[in-house]
Amino acid sequence: MLTAPSPAGGAGSVADLCLSRMKDSANPMPPAGLLAASEVAAFEKWIVDGMPQGTCATAVDLPVCTSGQTDTSFQESPSMQPGKACIACHASDGEAPLFTLAGTVYPTFHEPDQCVSQVVSAQVIVTDAAGQKVTMNVSPSSGNFSSFQPEQFPVTVEVVDSAGRKRPTASGASSGDCNLCHAPGPRANAVSRLKGGPSASASAQAKAWGKWGRAAWGSSHRDSRPTDR
Questions:
Q1: Poorest-pLDDT segment among 119-123, 180-184, 222-226
Q2: What is the pTM of this model?
Q3: Nearest Cα to 191, choosing from 179, 178, 200, 182?
Q4: Could you say which of 12, 48, 138, 218 is the most buried, measured as most Cβ atoms within 10 Å of its Cβ?
């Protein structure tokens, strides 16, 4: 929430942090570029006025699981726990594979944790500080993506949908744990979900994911090569 304390520390709020990013040409928010001065001024006035609450006829931007499917199990596979902060979770148990980049791509900006995403033919492209680029295929059976390739941070991230349209999502990102920030609620400096196009049909999910996901997981997992659900 914008009125919550800033994750950067100090006496400011999340709104104050957003305002500073809106004015930061080196690390802007949104990542695609600075907003118009009039838009920034309107947001700043709202903060100065005490961040008054507005009124809506209906609730908006509430997290809704587009697929209507959730994965709450902890059975290890490339499709497990979509929407959760993958790297933080894997680091905490000391057993699962430790990714350098990981996250979930959804068909809308507001989807809850553990919602199964079914985007078709999406890719996440990351370019690190040394100019090294890695392209990750997004699983159409969960929306998850991951990489073990060493990266030099900060990195630039973009999502490419099935029509080849590129959506810049981050410039100067200091972490590869994408879902840590791209979350539905006040987690870290939360922003909207990574968005990457329409959902897949059930048959398209299995065909598109196929052997690629199992091979990518199995080649790096210490214990076994699990069957994708």
A1: 222-226
A2: 0.63
A3: 182
A4: 138
Distance, CA of 142 to CA of 133 (rounded, Å): 23
CB-based burial of residue 71 (10 Å sphere; 0-12 exposed, 13-18 middle, 19+ buried)?
A: buried
| Contact partners, residue 96, CB within 8 Å, separation at least 6 | 76, 89, 90
CA distance linking residue 150 with residue 140, whole number of Å: 25
> Tokens 């690390």 map to which residue?
27
Residue 30: cis peptide before it, omega within 30 degrees of 0: yes
Which residue in this structure is represented by tokens 């091979």? Answer: 215
**Amino acid at position 182, single letter:** H
Encode pLDDT of 17-51 as tens digits: 888 888 888 877 766 667 788 888 888 998 998 88
Select from 173, 163, 185 the least CA-distant residue to 115: 185
How sure is the predictor about 130, in pLDDT bands with cuts at 50, 70 and 90?
very high
pLDDT band of residue 155 (cuts 50, 70, 90) is: very high
* C-alpha torsion angle, residues 199, 205, 208, 211 (rounded to 10): 150
Helix (H) or strand (E) holding 46: helix 37-48
